[in-house]
From TrEMBL:
Protein name (database record): 1,2-phenylacetyl-CoA epoxidase subunit A
GO biological processes: phenylacetate catabolic process
GO cellular component terms given for this protein: cytosol
Pfam family for this entry, one: PaaA_PaaC
The keyword Secreted is annotated on this UniProt entry: no
Ligase keyword on record: no
InterPro entries registered for this protein in UniProt: Aromatic_CoA_ox/epox (IPR052703), Ferritin-like (IPR012347), Ferritin-like_SF (IPR009078), PaaA (IPR011881), PaaA_PaaC (IPR007814)
Taxonomic source organism: Sphingomonas horti
Keywords carried by this UniProt record: Oxidoreductase
GO MF: phenylacetyl-CoA 1,2-epoxidase activity
Origin: domain of life: Bacteria
SUPFAM superfamilies xrefs: Ferritin-like
EC numbers for this chain: 1.14.13.149
Amino acid sequence: EDPALLEAFEARVAADEFIEPKDWMPEAYRRTLVRQISQHAHSEIVGMLPEGNWLTRAPSLRRKAVLLAKVQDEGGHGLYLYCAAETLGTSREQMIEALHSGKAKYSTIFNYPTLTWADIGAIGWLVDGAAIMNQVPLQRTSYGPYARAMVRVCKEESFHQRQGYEIMIAMANGTPEQKAMAQDALNRWWWPSLMMFGPSDENSPNTAQSMRWRIKRDTNDELRQKFVDITVPQAEFLGLTVPDPDLVWNEAKGGYDFGEVDWEEFYAVVRGEGPAAKERMEARRKAWDDGAWVREAALAHEAKRAARAAA
Ligand code: ACO
């Protein structure tokens, strides 16, 4: 790579300029972005499945309409993100193939099952809350199309977070059985939510370079800490207990000290051994196969249109 081009690129990144699709960029920067953006897109799409599980069983028409809108938003986020990745020279087919063959990752969080309606509350509150914590800084990521996609995504994620927290408020102030369901959902979703931020900084192979390129604006541990600090008072407001005996306010650092994530579980889920991993991938592959006729019809339509235009 031409050192002068590299130097100019690094100066632009250091000046907080956006890098755009036709600009020169180092190959490793391009590869990192394709990896992160495509994995992010896959997470949005696979993330529709655990909540989709409750669409037919939402407890009222209002809850059903809200959940349906939310799940559709996630599909939209996936599509923006695939488009952002495509500006880097990869194709939708390549990305989907990488997901279906197990080469590309998607967030560990979507490999856990949604057992009760309270899980839908906990997902909106905790999972979308963690997503916002991670994605608000990405509005200032150095790659323009990714940063711009994050603006709308974050607005919609805040709505998702509120719909989840509203469900939690209703459950936590409901019957003793409902409150117990809310507590059980918190117990099961707390630690997997902390895992969404990725390995600890010392074990994160990509963080240092991604911070230098300003692809990431905060480290995994910084975001995890912020998430804990914001979320614990929300649990207190609900009258629920965060399932961490080591959680304690640390006045000196102005934040909570908290227990260690079970990293063995994290890496097992990353390897594809999560409780619902097989089911998720089967659902995605089936959707792709079942949708083949739509793709074929769209291509045939486009070919006819082009032939008519040429005639
Ligand atoms: N689930 C699955 N894989 C993970 C997770 C996780 N929670 N955390 C880290 N990993 C993977 C990384 O993708 C990386 O693997 P790879 O090199 O094969 O890609 C490996 O573990 C090491 O992690 P890091 O060095 O920390 O990787 P990275 O710098 O990419 O940081 C992070 C991971 C924080 C997830 C980053 O990619 C990111 O911010 N992505 C954008 C946000 C996103 O994808 N959110 C998805 C969930 S939110 C939602 O969709 C609603």
